[in-house]
Write a structure and sequence with these properties.
The complex is a heterodimer of chains A (about 400) and B (about 80).
Chain A lengths: L3 E9 L6 H9 L21 E2 L12 H4 L4 H17 L5 H4 L2 E6 L5 H13 L9 H5 L3 H10 L5 E4 L5 H14 L5 E8 L4 H10 L19 E2 L1 E9 H6 L6 E10 L9 H14 L7 E5 L6 H15 L7 E3 L2 H4 L6 H15 L1 E2 L22 E2 L4 E8 L3 E8 L3
Parallel strand pairs in A: 2-6, 3-4, 3-5, 9-10, 9-13
Antiparallel strand pairs in A: 1-7, 1-8, 5-7, 8-14, 11-12, 13-14
Chain B lengths: L2 H13 L20 H15 L10 H4 L2 H18 L1
Helix pairs in contact in B: 1-4
Classes of the chains: A alpha/beta (about 400), B mainly alpha (about 80).
């Protein structure tokens, strides 16, 4: 079995379009959440979203390329290029064939679908753009990352709603560990702040009207975000053979399904995924210093996740630093797990923990150290990144320093 | 009891006890025997019936509100709509 390490990171997020800017925002507690910017005719009651407002495709793509790429693919390609550049990998023919691309997304080219169906149903247009299907397909981002980065190994998309990116990276980890590939470009992307999707979220009645304040008393729900997070994975052996700068080791990966309820979170399902990741990496609970929580800000999730952490960590739970960077970035759905894994890796690298902002005080059902409002310097040996999706699909990654 | 109130009580009744439920105005929404998604679905059915938008957040309104509160807000929305048209 190969050991697997991370040698490159890339992000497009509401608080920065490079890892440097993203991390600087997170550690200083800067929020990227604001009122949605949508065409005037599209009336929504959503007060807050995490949009990547200053993303300019023309800075990243040729004019003839932009029309082929839904926003969800643009985000993924931009983040993948950053990660690949940081890794320093050069994908010659042989290595390209041994490099996988596995990209998670909750809903793929949602913007293309929304716009196309609006043309048909509202404007009674008789035809659609010829590339509607290949732009909107859920695997479009995986294909585009492979095309732009020149990979020729296994490539596909993974979908598990809000856990998509974590499942994707976990799959890439397994593939490299078992020898199915040598390198992987993996993560998640989402660009579904569209009129249709926001109306769908509003109908669930779980969106925060004021702020995203995970684990806090008086929290009022979640805030939808968008963006992409991508990591470059490779076997430890390969990374060492080329003297790569190793950012972290993927220590373990755990998955579970609640098999209980479509939307209500289940602490026992969450706990099974966390325990599976710990067992996979043979990690003792007391070695874990930081948990980047799923922490959506809904009453139900945060309470259930707290209970799951108590179950898995026992008395060590109160010594964990647990924070939700969704308080600043929003919930980027299929990209969330990758954006959050990047935060966890940066926490390891910098021995620093980003805060949970907008925290007003303790909720009796959420009684851990949530790193309220201010980031801190603190040694991080092992960090977890939790993702718990609608439909009861759970995935947890563990990363550690490589000594 | 207004027509709106009577109809809402009846709609809630059809969702409970195998379609034969009885509710009181003072019943809290989180004690009807519906889960939170059930209450959200009920809100949607009432919105569709009266063509109004009920401000309702499942994170905090379920605990804070009773059947009577829900009826009151729908009555106010229906009255406001009548004034507009």
């Amino acid at each position: 079995m190969n050991r697997v390490v991370i040698t490159g990171l890339g992000v497009v997020s509401p608080v920065g379009q490079s890892v440097r800017h993203y991390w600087a925002s997170l550690i200083s507690g800067r929020s990227g959440l604001a009122a949605p910017v949508l065409p005037a005719a599209m009336q929504v009651s959503t007060k807050l979203v995490g949009q990547v407002l200053d993303f300019d495709p023309s800075q990243h793509f040729e004019p003839q390329q932009i029309g082929l790429l839904d926003r969800v693919s643009q985000f993924a390609v931009v983040a993948a290029r950053q990660a690949l550049a940081q890794s320093g990998l050069s994908l010659g023919q042989e290595l390209a064939e041994r490099t996988a691309v596995i990209i998670g997304t909750g809903s793929g080219g949602h913007g293309t679908i929304d716009d196309s169906f609006h043309r048909l149903y509202a404007e009674a247009s008789p035809r659609l753009h010829p590339l509607t299907i290949p732009k909107a397909m859920i695997s479009a981002a995986a294909s585009q990352v492979s095309l732009f980065c020149g990979t020729k190994g296994p490539a596909y998309a993974v979908a598990s709603a809000c856990a998509s990116a974590t499942h994707a990276i976990g799959q890439a980890f397994h593939m490299l560990r078992s020898g199915g590939a040598t390198c992987a470009i993996s993560g998640g992307t989402e660009a579904s702040i569209t009129y249709g999707a926001l109306k769908g979220w509003e109908a669930m009645r779980i969106m925060a009207p004021d702020a995203c304040r995970p684990f806090s008393r008086d929290r009022k729900g979640m805030v939808i975000g968008e963006g992409a997070g991508i990591v470059v994975l490779e076997t430890l052996e390969h990374a060492r053979s080329r003297n790569a700068d190793i950012l972290a080791e993927v220590a373990g990966f755990g998955m579970s399904a609640d098999s209980k309820d479509l939307t209500a979170p289940d602490p026992s399902g969450m706990a099974r995924a966390i325990s599976a990741a710990m067992m996979d990496g043979a990690l003792a609970p007391h070695t874990v210093d930081y948990v980047n929580a799923h922490g959506t800000g809904t009453v139900a999730n945060d309470q259930a996740e707290t209970a799951a952490l108590h179950t898995c960590f026992g008395s060590h739970a109160r010594r964990l630093a647990v924070s939700s960077t969704k308080s600043m970035v929003g919930h980027a759905l299929g990209a969330a797990g990758a954006l959050e894994l990047v935060a966890a890796v940066m926490a390891l690298r910098n021995d620093a923990i980003p805060p949970t902002i907008n925290y007003l005080g303790a909720d009796p059902a959420c009684d851990l150290d949530y790193v309220p409002n201010e980031g801190r310097q603190s040694s991080v040996r092992v960090a977890l990144s939790n993702s718990f999706a609608f439909g009861g699909l759970n995935a947890v990654l563990a990363v550690r320093k490589v000594g | 009891m207004s027509d709106v109130a009577a109809e809402i009580m009846q709609i809630i009744g059809t969702k409970l006890n195998g379609g034969d439920g009885v509710v009181a105005l003072t019943d809290p929404l989180d004690e009807l025997g519906l889960d939170s998604l059930g209450v959200v679905d009920l809100t949607f059915v009432i919105e569709e019936r009266f063509d109004v938008e009920i401000p309702f957040n499942a994170n905090f309104d379920i605990k804070a509100k009773t059947v009577g509160d829900l009826i009151e807000s729908v009555e106010a929305l229906v009255a406001a709509k009548a004034t507009l048209t």
